[in-house]
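We modelled the chain as a single entity of 155 amino acids. Its sequence is:
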Amino acid sequence: MYLYRVVRHKYLYDLSGNGSKLFGGRWNSPGIPALYTSASKSLAVLESLTNTPPAILQNDFSILILEITGKILADEFQEKDLPKNWKVYPAPVNLAKMGDKWLLARRRLLLKVPSVVIPSEYNFIINPLHKDRKRVKIIAAERLELDTRVADNMK
């Protein structure tokens, strides 16, 4: 299984989840590490564009390609099981609490969650606390190069 992550160059090889541990995210509270990834490169870029201006993404980011080796099962939060307001920004606290519970249980390495940007596509949360975290391998890193029209259209 391949997963994708848009990341600042200086954190390219950091799979610790420390960024989300410091600041929290939709699926985790501050203090609990999580590694956010997407099922495709394009979704990873779209997810990043919702939080980072294109000009910054263009200059300081890469797409990290990860492989999860061996057979790994993922837990899943389906949209039907989420609160009605799960897509709002900022994210409802109860989503982070759901993610915290999953992360701290350490039952599985991966959690499949619907994307807020495109709910029919999926992101995967990697649990850096899980015993199988060594199955997450960095395959490649590609400098993120956005077409200039992306930045122009977002002004």
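As a brief sanity check on the tokenised model: The helical segments are 18-23, 41-49, 54-60, 93-105, 148-153. The chain is about 25% helix and 25% strand.
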